[in-house]
Amino acid sequence: MSQNHDIQIGNIFTHSWGYDQTNIDFYQVVKATPKTVIVRKIGEETVPGSDAGFMCDRVLPKPFTFTGELLRKRPYLWRDEWHLSMGYGSASPWDGEPESRSWYC
Q1: Dihedral (CA of 95, 98, 100, 101) sign
Q2: 8 in a domain, yes or no?
Q3: Residue 19's pLDDT band (boundaries 50, 70, 90)?
Q4: CA pair distance 78, 61, nearest whole angstrom
Q5: At residue 1, does pLDDT exceed 60?
Q6: DSSP symbols for the chain
Q7: Is residue 98 part of a domain?
Q8: Is 52 domain-assigned?
Q9: 14 domain-assigned
Q10: Domain membership of residue 74 as a residue range
Q11: What is the predicted pLDDT for the residue at 2?
């Protein structure tokens, strides 16, 4: 029997992915049932001054600035944290710190 998650509406998840670059996507929970959550992708903003490096910066989520469709996910527990499968990796709970991203031109 699977365990019910403790994810709440408003929680933010981060998904880091990419090849030769690091993309960051943020998702916010808009609905939660005992076994599933509904999330939507949200926007991000560059941390001022963090873009001084070469092809990199740090970003923070912009809650409630929805940019994507509704996605239904069944959370799974890994290393004592709830994660969401994203098809190419997983999204983990955002820890409140800026996320590093990079790109290749």
Answers
A1: positive
A2: no
A3: confident
A4: 23
A5: no
A6: -PPPP---TT-EEEEEE-SSSBEEEEEEEEEE-SS-EEEEEEEEEEPTTGGGSSSEEEEEEEEEEE-S--EEE--EEETTEEEEE-SSSEEEE--SSPEEEE---
A7: no
A8: yes
A9: no
A10: 19-93
A11: 64
pTM of the model: 0.92
- What the block records as the tokens of 88 is 């190419």
Confidence of residue 3 (pLDDT cuts 50, 70, 90): confident
Please count the other Cβ atoms lying within 10 Å of the Cβ belonging to residue 37. 23
Close Cβ partners of 98 (under 8 Å, ≥ 6 residues apart): 47, 50, 58, 59, 60
Q: Which two tokens stand for residue 24?
A: 């960051």
If one counts the domains in the chain, the total is 1
Residue 11 predicted with pLDDT over 80: yes
